């Protein structure tokens, strides 16, 4: 039975990936989820999986070399899928240090532990072992030409402390591939949306605020563009790259689904009004009157857009969930999981919110 070590599996994309993998492979695989349970890690995301015999959760920090090496010593790991990271740009602007620690040093620790466990005495690597480093399109910087897209060959030009730390971690992975022929792949994906996303990110934040009648804080002129991908399509892409991708290659994953932020906010309002029953008390809160243009994010990248040509032509991957369908599914999920959101909002979240949005 193949054993996966997933890092950051209690976060947004990691938990969706674990759900996807168990749905696809059932009892054919074993997953060990290593997560430090930071503010972004939520065991509730995996509640329905906890009882499985072929699933193990280990609370550990990826920067803790001994703890990570111990996991490799005690388990014959075949695949690493490395999600664990500090992931929010706004937090990276106010507190960059933890981004460098987790994203750069943590990735190095993961690589070294895997290398130590997988390397043969002659410097080659055991058959079938693979490491997938999950990264972002933000490493490529901001597109100014409207006809331009991010390709795997686009030079790195990160601007935020978050994207700079992800770029650094990508380069460390590349260095291990080039220097040691370490068996890895890198995926650079565009913005994800879907269930279990922490409400510091645009889509769940706007859904939550609209339902509670709070302002919808749109940064700057609201015309920054992101390329949105339904999270399950990302999970599928990651699995396809690890199954069928050429080792040592980078694959961009994205959906040709560019939207301005203000369009997203308006779609969320319209969809909420469509889905909320007439007698639902939250309905009266929702409307465009909530939109509030606020001080822009520092160094705000204008446009991201992926050209997924390589993953499409080599592996046959394509986004399956069209945005109109995906956003409806996502909003329905948040409406049906009010308690999931309330548990977050009742924790430290409102302190974060007041600090981040209080002066805007
Ligand atoms: P997230 O913030 O929702 O989850 C991160 C997870 O990592 C959490 O469970 C957290 O507890 C864990 N973690 C953080 N620091 C850790 C540490 N030191 N040790 C162990 N675990 C730790 O993030 P996400 O949105 O699910 O993103 C996952 C990965 O995908 C990240 O590497 C991110 O850069 C990348 N990515 C995200 C997006 C997106 O739109 N969210 C797009 C492209 C790529
Ligand atoms: P976000 O979800 O933080 O993802 P990223 O910065 O990694 O792309 O933000 C998506 C876009 O939405 C980005 O252009 C910033 C903007 N945004 C707002 O306008 N208001 C908000 O409250 C947030 C969180 C984001």
Short structural summary:
This protein has helices at 12-25, 65-74, 89-94, 97-118, 161-180, 202-212, 231-244, 261-275, 309-315, 323-336, 338-357; strands spanning 2-7, 29-35, 55-59, 79-82, 130-136, 184-189, 192-193, 216-219, 225-227, 229-230, 250-253, 258-260, 291-294.
Q: If strands are numbered along the chain, what order do they take across the biggest sheet?
A: 3-2-1-4-5-6-11
Mean pLDDT: 97
**Estimated radius of gyration:** 20 Å
CATH architecture of the domain at 2-193 and 229-256 and 300-321: 3-Layer(aba) Sandwich
Question: What is the helix fraction of residues, given as a range?
Answer: 40-55%
DSSP strand content:
15-25%
How many DSSP helices?
11
pLDDT under 50 segments (min length 5)? none
**CATH H-tier superfamily of the domain at 2-193 and 229-256 and 300-321:** NAD(P)-binding Rossmann-like Domain
Largest sheet: 7 strands, parallel
Distance between the termini: 52 Å
**Briefly, what CATH class of the domain at 2-193 and 229-256 and 300-321?**
Alpha Beta
Structural class: alpha/beta
Task: Outline the fold blueprint.
Blueprint: E1 2-7, H1 12-25, E2 29-35, E3 55-59, H2 65-74, E4 79-82, H3 89-94, H4 97-118, E5 130-136, H5 161-180, E6 184-189, E7 192-193, H6 202-212, E8 216-219, E9 225-227, E10 229-230, H7 231-244, E11 250-253, E12 258-260, H8 261-275, E13 291-294, H9 309-315, H10 323-336, H11 338-357
Parallel strand pairs: 1-2, 1-4, 2-3, 4-5, 5-6, 6-11, 7-10, 8-13
Antiparallel strand pairs: 9-12
The site of thymidine-5'-diphosphate has 12 residues, from helix 6 and strand 8.
